[in-house]
Write a structure and sequence with these properties.
single chain; alpha/beta; 4-stranded parallel sheet; 4-stranded mixed sheet; 11 strands; 56% helix; 9% strand
Length: 853
């Protein structure tokens, strides 16, 4: 049942509100909004006045063992309880051998200085009250179907303090519109956060109003919905705990829960059956820890459903409230404007804020607050003043960076701390130690860029290995920005590596998930690497030299040099057994990379690496003959492998000179003549795939083994009389893949191709046109222009005319050209049908040749 703004609460809710602070039963219900400074301040006043015997808090009752940690003198907010649990579920793929898979759940219960729950624990303990958690156990809630709503990842971390109801309340949305607020966040601020310090001191009036706010939001939800999404079961559980505590404890009891649940708790707790006290340990209970948390994760603008936006801003408000300032809001506004302006100037921003603009924004914020009837300028007043005074021009044009900076500034970068007794797994402590050594701040969630000199500074190499290790574990610590890509075998000429890294609670959450695999980052990386070794065999890649060397490179990147002897031995075995040329050649290239980067990768002391480099060339040559009879669909891959092998030979030859220099005997040079002999067999063999023969012929010419006459002889055989058009085009593709410039450098090749195309009829031309165009795409634009001129010359046209033909056809797409050729064929058929075949006497071959180029 939804009601409109201005209407009174229904009778049942009005009656519940009158029983919030029970005079007879001494049970005080405190409806709060999580992470609200106003609620926290009013609650502290209530606790100090009531002096309760017990404080009951909405929190999973199986986490009670963590309550003392919140009271520890070394615990500094923001912190969070992190809860994790796993279960075995049926495998999704019925074909797999594994019948079950592991599914996990992770959730956070965050606290900051101004969280009412934090105040309840700390202030309650200081007053000598017993503390209790009364919500459903986390282990019971973890697998509720509501956690698997459409669009939510199964393993996503979620909050245990969701307040999505307020954002979807029709009553609150109508009230937001009526008061001219931007959203329900500003509405909350105007009605509650912006009350004066004196008004917050009247905690009875304040919490009565909070109750009304939450009760109105609850009216939009039917009982069936609340039952299905677990609100009612949770409230029955909490009511049972309240009943038990009332039976067992003498004196006032304060119950601190989300305001959405308060109406039901007030109505039902006296009727509830007392719950049993939760056992000290529970079978199957979730693992839980107190971890450090960050303002970034607390920010509602970053997706935290229960958070207040801009927690850094509200932290300032809270600190001013605690200090007893009469006008905390004006003080925070002036301080925020000044600090933000100073930040824009320190960063030398184009839109840096001057002192005059700060003064104008301060005056604007205070005028807006007065206009809106606020006790002082609030967060929305501050934002509106900044947008009005600091941003010149349209807000949505060119201000994304400014807006992001402002949002991050108000969000804050604080990270909390926990005492050593919090029981973090050793893995987290090791990661923290390594992070500090790598220059990552553990008390600040701001991402910073680290630029590492890999070749000259050993300490930078250690930092790089830590960053790579954390990325390998998918810990979310940092993002690789630039530098040599040793795994991808690219950008190897770059000497510096750059990472953007920041510590966050999610890093610790991920490490906790991995804690079972080892007590250190190195141990967990080692465990993952061993799993990948086993997986190679399971995936049918147990003999893949390429996959094995990739593991070897990964081990070097993440700092597992102690594992190198075993990995090198595994690679040696794989190299002996691998029957795939592409895999062996790729292995060779990666080994060359490993050798040349042996200092930053830490493999200087492994002579076995040199032995592998010497063995990879004969292993590849042994498999090379298999490329000859490649099927047509595999020709492109075969040519690519052949070219890669030739490049590997050149690289190994240069390394052979290094080996010779180091030994003084030159006895380890690569014998490239073995490759030449096989290339000649490919170029002249009858059973060799045409593309492979073309690529081999081009390579022999490029490497100086063949002269013009030898290459022309093969070309005339491929394009001369009796040549099969399909095979000739495939041969051309092989040549062009290896050395596209030969089409311009070798007249016999162009003349042979021209003669071949002129001999085609229209149907043959259309059939082979796509392959011809693919071959010509390897030419540069200027080379294509030169080719057009030469083709024109072969047909009696001047070079300028040829270039003009090229210009005419340059913008024509392959699809357009193909469609045009098909239309030409259809037209010819129509002319023949109508007895006009003589009209087709014009030499079409010349046109075909020009179109192809």
């Amino acid at each position: 049942m939804a009601i409109e703004p201005g209407q009174a609460l229904p009778a049942a809710l009005e009656a519940a509100r009158s029983r919030l602070f029970g005079e007879d039963d001494e049970v005080f219900f405190v409806p709060v909004r999580h992470h609200s400074p106003a609620c926290a301040f009013a609650l502290r006043g209530l606790l100090r006045e009531v002096k309760p015997a017990a404080v009951l808090i909405e929190g999973p009752d199986d986490l009670a063992a963590l309550l003392p940690l919140l009271q520890h003198e070394k615990t500094r907010a923001p912190v969070a309880w992190l809860c994790q649990t796993t279960r075995q579920v049926p495998a999704e793929d019925p074909e797999t051998e594994e019948k079950t898979r592991t599914e996990s759940r992770t959730s956070f219960f965050p606290f900051c200085d101004y969280s009412p729950e934090w105040i309840a624990v700390r202030e309650g303990a200081a007053l000598g009250a017993q503390l209790g958690l009364i919500d459903l156990p986390w282990s019971d809630k973890a697998w509720h179907r509501n956690n698997e709503e459409e669009g939510e990842a199964r393993d996503a971390a979620r909050s245990l303090m969701e307040e999505r109801y307020f954002a979807h309340s029709r009553y609150l949305n109508a009230l937001t519109a009526q008061l001219g607020c931007v959203d329900h966040q500003e509405l909350w601020d105007r009605l509650f956060e912006l009350r004066s310090t004196a008004a917050l001191g009247d905690w009875r009036a304040f919490f009565s109003d909070v109750f009304s706010w939450c009760a109105m939001a609850r009216l939009d939800y039917e009982p069936e919905v609340l039952e299905a999404e677990l609100s009612l079961p949770r409230e029955r559980h909490m009511a049972g705990h309240i009943r038990r505590w009332r039976n067992e404890v003498k004196g006032p009891i304060v119950v601190v829960t989300g305001g959405f649940h308060t109406p039901e708790l007030v109505a039902q707790w006296q009727k509830a059956k007392p719950s049993k006290a939760p056992a000290a340990t529970r079978d199957g209970a979730a693992d839980a820890w107190l971890i450090r948390y960050s303002f970034e994760r607390l920010d509602a603008l970053n997706g935290y459903a229960s958070g207040m936006p801009s927690p850094g801003y509200y932290q300032q408000v809270w600190e001013r409230l605690e200090a007893g300032e009469d006008d905390p809001f004006t003080a925070v506004t002036l301080h925020s404007l000044t600090r933000f302006a100073r930040q824009t100037r320190a960063q030398d921003q184009v839109d840096a804020v001057s002192t005059a603009l700060v003064q104008a924004a301060a005056a604007q914020a205070m005028r807006l607050a007065a206009l809106r009837g606020n006790a002082g300028p609030g967060r929305q007043d501050l934002l509106d003043a900044i947008r009005s005074c600091f941003i010149k021009g349209a807000i949505d044009e060119g201000t994304r960076g400014f807006t992001a900076d402002l949002r991050n500034f108000l969000s804050g970068t604080r990270i909390g701390d926990v005492p050593p007794s919090a029981g973090s797994p050793p893995l987290i402590e090791d990661a923290r130690r390594l992070a500090r050594a790598a220059g990552v701040r553990l008390d600040d969630s701001t991402a910073r860029v680290a630029r590492l000199d890999l070749y000259r500074k050993p300490s930078h190499r250690e930092r790089s290995r830590f960053f790579h290790a954390m990325a390998y574990l998918d810990a979310g610590l940092g993002t690789w920005l630039a530098g040599p890509d040793f795994l991808g075998n690219s950008r190897l000429h770059i000497l510096f590596e750059e990472w953007r890294a920041a510590w966050s609670p999610l890093v610790e959450a991920r490490l906790i998930e991995l804690a079972a695999d080892g007590a250190s980052v190195e141990a967990v990386c080692m465990a993952k690497l061993r799993k990948e070794e086993v997986a190679l065999a399971d995936q049918g890649r147990g003999r893949s030299a390429s996959a094995a060397v990739a593991l070897l490179l990964r081990a070097c990147l993440v700092g597992l040099q102690s594992r190198l002897p075993q990995l090198l031995s595994m690679l040696s075995t794989h190299l002996d057994e691998d029957a795939a040329l592409g895999s062996v050649v790729d292995c060779g290239h990666r080994l060359v990379t490993l050798w040349r980067a042996r200092e930053p990768l830490g493999v200087q002391q492994h002579p076995q690496l040199r032995s592998l480099l010497e063995r990879v060339w004969p292993a590849a040559l042994f498999l090379l003959p298999d490329l000859g009879p490649s099927p047509e669909e595999g020709e492109a891959g075969a040519v690519k492998q052949l070219l890669s092998l030739r490049e590997l030979g050149r690289l190994l030859a240069s390394l052979g000179e290094e080996f010779g220099d180091s030994d003084g005997d030159g006895g380890h040079a690569i014998d490239l003549d073995l490759l030449r002999a096989q290339l000649e067999r490919f170029a002249t063999g009858a059973a060799v795939a045409p593309a492979v023969a073309g690529a081999a012929s081009a390579l022999l010419f490029l490497d100086g083994h063949w002269d013009d006459h030898a290459l022309e002889t093969v070309v005339r055989q491929r394009f001369g009389a009796g040549a099969q058009p399909r095979e000739a085009v495939r041969f051309l593709n092989g040549v062009m893949a290896a050395a596209p410039e030969l089409l311009l450098r070798l007249p016999a090749l162009l003349e042979g191709l021209d003669g071949l195309v002129r001999g085609w009829d229209a149907e043959a031309f259309v059939a082979h046109l796509p392959d011809l165009r693919q071959a010509f795409t390897r030419l540069k634009p200027q080379e294509t222009s030169d080719l057009a001129g030469r083709v024109a010359g072969l047909h009696g046209l001047g070079e300028a005319e040829g270039e003009s033909l090229y210009q005419v056809h340059y913008e024509t797409t392959e699809h357009d050209l193909h469609e045009g050729a098909q239309l030409q064929l259809a037209l010819a058929e129509c002319l023949r049908r109508d007895g006009l075949a003589a009209w087709l006497a014009a030499p079409a071959a010349a046109t075909n040749t020009e179109s192809a180029s």
